[in-house]
Amino acid sequence: MAITDKTRKALWAQSGNRCLLCRIELVQESEHENDKLIIGEECHIVSSKANGPRGDTTFIGNYDHIDNLVLLCANDHKRIDELTEIYTVEKLKLFKLIHENWVKTTLERDVIAFTNDKSNIKSLPQVTTGKKIIDIINGAHLFDFHHDELSTEKEAEIVGGLLEDFKDYGDLLSDIGYAEIAKLGIRYNDELENLKKMGFILFGLRRKIRLRNDKKENVGLYEAASIIIVRDNNPSIVNNFLIAKFPTDFSFF
Ligand SMILES: [Zn+2]
Predict the structure, then answer these.
(1) How far is the centre of ligand 1, averaged over its atoms, from the C-alpha of 39 (Å)?
(2) Does residue 146 belong to any structural domain of this protein?
(3) Inside any domain, residue 244
(4) How far is the CA of 129 from the centre of ligand 1 (A)?
(5) Distance (Å) from CA 68 to ligand 1 centroid
(6) Closest by CA position to 75, among listed 23, 127, 118
(7) How far is the CA of 225 from the centre of ligand 1 (A)?
């Protein structure tokens, strides 16, 4: 048996397009490319295989029935299937009930609030060329940089140094000629290669963010360069994207 289209549609609808555990949107708008990124996976609570996650030889019924299915992001799918002692059948069923209720009541109460908080979570594409880094940093008003915990002095020097370099050039690029910019792009290609050898991947995006001051007053839209350097085994990496949370309201001044 396979999951029928009807069941699949019902599952996605009841889940509100959100992951059961982290509530991330499972169909992501990619602002960088025209297509959509689907990170949702239909997962069995009780595996149809006896030795699979939460497998149960006494299970009676259809494994592909909606009651035995939950919708999760790829990361959390992996999590529940690895940590089966934590994510038991009973717990997943309870989470499912709570989640579906949350979708229903939130939608009924305030559709706008429901759709708005999606701006908190974004997918950042992997950056593979120096030129792309330049496009992200060139003329940005704000630099929103993060990195994974660093464990050696060498890592701190390279990762920290590189982010500082991006910041310096982001401010300077408008005053530099094309030839210099092209050379910088080539140097960044080497830096990306170097990061890769050290087990790091760079994700980034240029985006507009709305800023608010301390009084929560809107002070306008600003160009922000978001760059995150993470280890290549970071669980938030889904294909060529990093699924990361961003605050919508930056406080500054
Ligand atoms: Zn999730």
Answers:
(1) 9
(2) yes
(3) yes
(4) 29
(5) 18
(6) 23
(7) 25
Q: Is residue 216 part of a domain?
A: yes
- In this structure, are 217 and 137 located in the same domain? yes
Cβ atoms of residues 21 and 95 within 8 Å: yes
What is the 71 CA–ligand 1 centroid distance (Å)?
Answer: 9
Residue 144 CA to ligand 1 center (angstroms) comes to 24
- Shared-domain flag, residues 81 and 152: no
Residue 72 Cα to ligand 1 midpoint, Å, equals 5
Distance CA 141, CA 224 (A): 6
- Give the chain's domain count: 2
Q: What spacing in Å lies between the alpha carbon of 193 and ligand 1's midpoint? A: 30
> Do residue 93 and residue 19 come from a single domain?
yes
State which residues have CB under 5 angstroms from ligand 1, the bound ion: 19, 21-22, 73, 76
Q: Are residues 18 and 93 in the same domain?
A: yes
Considering the domain architecture, whether residues 72 and 169 belong to the same structural domain is answered as no
Q: Rounded distance, CA 231 to CA 130, Å?
A: 19
Each residue's pLDDT tens digit, 128-184: 999 999 999 998 888 888 888 899 999 999 999 999 999 999 888 888 899 999 999
Q: State the distance from the centre of ligand 1 to the C-alpha of 12, rounded, in angstroms.
A: 14
| pLDDT per position as a tens digit, 193-249 | 999 999 999 999 888 777 766 777 777 778 888 899 999 988 777 778 787 655 444
Q: Note down the domain range covering 23.
A: 5-109
**Other residues' Cβ atoms within 10 Å of the Cβ of residue 103:** 18
Distance (Å) from CA 23 to ligand 1 centroid: 6
Its pTM stands at 0.57
Give the dihedral of Cα atoms 193, 196, 198, 199; nearest 10 deg.
180
DSSP structural state of residue 18: B
